[in-house]
Amino acid sequence: MTTISLCMIVRNEEEVLARCLDSVRDLVDEIVIVDTGSEDRTKEIAAGYTDRIYDLEWTDHFANARNYSFSLATQDYIMWLDADDYIKEKDRQKLKALKQTLEDDVDSVVMEYHLAFDGYDNPIAMSRRNRIVKRSRQYRWHNPVHEYLLVEGNYYLTDIAVSHGRVHENTGRNLRILEQMAERDGEVTGRDVFYYANELSDAGRFAEAAEQYRRFLDSSADYFEDNLTACARLSACYHQLGLPDLKLSSLLQSMAYDVPRADFCCSIGQCFVEREDFVKAIYWFKLALTQERPPDHHFGVLNLICWTWLPHFQLCICYGLTGELELAHEHNEKALAYLPEDINLLQNKSKIEAALGMEAGLE
């Protein structure tokens, strides 16, 4: 049977660490905790799960910290998690079964990463990660911030998910590190431009973020998914800056990198809703319904609701505003098939059916 080392880097994670470790402690064969300077009960909590706790002086370099944690592993495979990650019961059972059957020629297990949830605990945004890797391959992490694990070899794709339950607010730490890099080197370059733009946007510095997104999109990218995300986030910056034409043009630019995707179609449709141009809005929401989700080897972030209920909900609104109540009712019913207990959809149903009944009574 496969053995697994769980390797984590932590700092001031007393609010979430127990949830994480409780969800995985019986699925791994050792737990390695590298603490980078906690001032709360993090190490005390960790000691309830493992005696393999190590201190590492923080040097503003996430990849170095993760590589150190990997160097301490002793089992066949290494799994990594952040402290605000956890594994739900259905995924625990899948991972338990995988551990029993994983073939020795697998170099990396790719798992889903559920980033956000609706009020019914359904995932609404996800990506994928190389989550469990063979220790003998000695894979390395790269980049001081927004670090990535460079993996080659035989991938095993699975629908097993790690769930993200963020508690901490953005501290500005990543932005500070990137600004220090820019000051030291004159400017950030390569993929770090994309990360720098993301951090500026998260900090509410939308004009500066837009400038960096444009820089990134004007350069050649190693991974086209970054271009797509840059288009989406650039459009959000323009929205915040009150520039609707640039917002729309940045969304349309996404089609230079890939075929239309449901999430971009929905965002473009919303641009036309904001202009009260419902004919064009309906076109884009209907187009969203025809788009297939990217394949399982896709690693970019997916807004899952754009492939399920959201286009139907938006079409219900658009058709309602244009007086096409039968079509509004049809799409509201299709949205309800995904969210049968959603109060907004149920209210729509009552209002539309009442209006249709009124019209029938007048005929």
From TrEMBL:
Keywords tagged on the record: Glycosyltransferase, Transferase
Q: What class of enzyme is it?
A: transferase
What InterPro entries is this protein classified in?
Answer: Glyco_trans_2-like (IPR001173), Nucleotide-diphossugar_trans (IPR029044), TPR-like_helical_dom_sf (IPR011990)
Q: Where on the tree of life does the source sit, at the highest rank?
A: Bacteria
Q: Entry's Gene3D superfamilies?
A: Spore Coat Polysaccharide Biosynthesis Protein SpsA, Chain A, Tetratricopeptide repeat domain
Provide a Gene Ontology MF annotation, just one.
Answer: glycosyltransferase activity
SUPFAM superfamilies under this entry? Nucleotide-diphospho-sugar transferases, TPR-like
Does the keyword Ubl conjugation belong to this entry? no
For this protein, what is the EC number? 2.4.-.-
All copies of domain Glycosyltransferase 2-like, residue ranges: 5-137
Q: What is this protein called?
A: Glycosyltransferase
